[in-house]
Amino acid sequence: MSGDHADATIARRVRRLETLLEERGVLTGELIDEAIDAFLAESSPANGARVVARAWTDADYRARLLADGTAAVRELGFMEGSYQRLRVVENTDTTHNVIVCTLCSCYPLRLLGPSPSWYKSEAYRSRVVREPRAVLAEFGLELPADTEITVWDSSAETRYMVLPRRPEGTDTLDEAQLAALVTRNALIGTAAV
Ligand code: FE
Questions:
Q1: How far is the CA of 182 from the centre of ligand 1 (A)?
Q2: The domain made up of 44-188 is a member of CATH 3.90.330.10
Q3: Per-residue confidence at 142, pLDDT binned at 50, 70, 90?
Q4: How far is the CA of 64 from the centre of ligand 1 (A)?
């Protein structure tokens, strides 16, 4: 993925492999583009929202999700074959989590869809680490003064997703209705839900 700090060596190696396979007629540029398009077509915040709704309605799933995010999202068919590790961090009534990639724009695409431009901006990447409370307030998320905020910096191997708090008054909603409440920004941590 471009803009990924997975590292330039890997990117070069992949490019070389692509060229070799194309030269030998094993693969074509179009096939590679089709594979990327298919990946992007299946990448949506609706996927992350489904994971959240399952965690809100199934305590055992929630425990598995927090213990091993990668394995738990694979149960729902996401991130199969991915070399990356997913860590899911849970908001509580005293703690709030927000994700960033300070180096570039690493992001769990499959679960959150294409990343918003502000996520990749220099301003967000530098400021959310130094003054998360102020940045979240600019997103309209005013947290109580005693809420502890943790900022998770993505790395080449580890991607993060926030598990938001289930809103009050949603006891009668089913899993699909709950999933519809969850926004992309909540999965990043710049919205409550
Ligand atoms: Fe990155």
A1: 24
A2: yes
A3: very high
A4: 26
DSSP 12-76: HHHHHHHHHHHHTTS--HHHHHHHHHHHHHT--HHHHHHHHHHHHH-HHHHHHHHH-HHHHHHHT
The whole-chain average pLDDT of the chain stands at: 92
- What six digits make up the tokens of 143? 């947290």
Assess whether pLDDT exceeds 90 at residue 33.
Answer: no
Please return the burial class of 122, using the count of CB atoms within 10 Å of its CB with bins 0-12, 13-18 and 19+. Answer: exposed
Tokens found for residue 184: 């992309």
Does the pLDDT value for residue 182 go beyond 60?
yes
Q: Where in the sequence of the chain do the CATH 3.90.330.10 domains occur?
A: 44-188
Cα 176 to averaged position of ligand 1 atoms, centre (Å): 31
User: Residue 110's closest CA among 182, 152, 48, 178?
Assistant: 48
pLDDT at 2: 44
Phi and psi (nearest 5°) for 152?
Answer: -105, 120
**Residues annotated as catalytic (active site), given as ranges:** 101, 104-106
Long-range contacts of 32-35 (CB under 8 A, 24+ apart): none
Which tokens go with 6? 């997975």
> Of 104, 132, 137, whose CA–CA distance to 119 is shortest?
104
Mean pLDDT of 110-117: 94
